[in-house]
Specification:
Elements lengths: L2 H9 L10 H13 L4 E5 L6 E7 L7 E6 L18 E3 L2 E3 L3 H13 L1 H6 L6 E6 L9 H5 L2 H4 L5 E4 L10 E2 L1 E10 L3 E2 L9 H19 L14 E9 L5 E2 L2 E10 L5 H4 L1 H9 L6 E10 L2 E2 L5 H10 L13 H6 L4 E3 L14 E3 H17 L3
Parallel strand pairs: 3-6, 3-7, 7-16
Antiparallel strand pairs: 1-2, 2-6, 4-5, 5-17, 8-15, 9-13, 9-14, 10-12, 11-13
Length: 374
Amino acid sequence: MQAIEILERLVGFPSVVGTPNGEIVGWIRHYLQRHGIVATEIAGPEGDRSNLFVTIGPRETPGYILSGHMDVVPATEGGWSSDPFRLRAETDRLYGRGTTDMKGFLAVVLAAVPALAAAQLRRPFHFAFSYDEEAGCRGVPHMIARLPELCAPPLGAIIGEPSGMRAIRAHKGKAAARLTVRGRSGHSSRPDQGLNAIHAMTEVLARASAEADRLTQGPFDPGFEPPYSSLQVGTLKGGQAVNIIPESCEAEFEARAISGIDPAKLLAPLRTMAEALPQRGFQSEWRELSAYPALSLAADAPLAHLLEELTGIEPLAAVSYGTEAGLFQRAGIDAIICGPGDIARAHRPDEFILASELLACQGMIEALARRCTA
């Protein structure tokens, strides 16, 4: 099967983040089995979704990981010109949810399977396909934890997020959390008899705003835009009616950190405030939603040189969005981002990838295969 044909199949699976992914996992496993390749399915604690890990070539020899996620963001926003889960071709453009982020990369990788299986590889290719990346890389840590038993220490991991086939050496880390505050309801004419959960939450919101302003003062890393860490309130819910003391309020916070800073620590002042609320009669629950570290690969790292040779383009220093690359690096595996498509097209109506971009990615994988062939 060619990459576009495989992409059509992958787009047809509505593998939305946070939902069961058995259908797309099953199809990929069956496709690999037809070529004599056995995939290891690594289930997550949710019980209804899994990662896939594949090795082609000598398992006991260090090789390269091609990593990508099978999940996509929802396609409920307006503006789609056609069914988002049905591939539509229009000249060089291939439309559909996930075409760029990032089933296009998965399609190219899978299209290379017959050639890789037939090659005399002296170094193996590993495929690491994960779930729920769009929820903060929730699936891939379970797979990374299993790598010591699945393969020899890899030489590097190539994360196929859309980068225009220009390698990227660094990205910010991220942490997200949800705070739920519960007070005591009552009629708004008797505030002395209630506990206003929204009022309590506003104190935490004010601290979040102050922390966000503080972060703009540094420390700085000029490779990023903006060149500093950031923090924001992303969602806020609470109250029933204007004349009812709100019993509950919920907010979600997100921090993005430059290299060298733990993103979870940026949220620590808010958590401290939340944990103090019970002293005033409120109930509070702080729930960590996701966290992954920043990526920082040195410009002179062998993996950076390799990707420059494979693509013919000098790697970009950094981007502000995040990927699972930082998790691989934290596990001791050099990682870099390089994949087809443009991140600006992701998470939008009429998401698309160019057929020419798939060809460019195919060329990169073929060039890597030649280096790994005896």
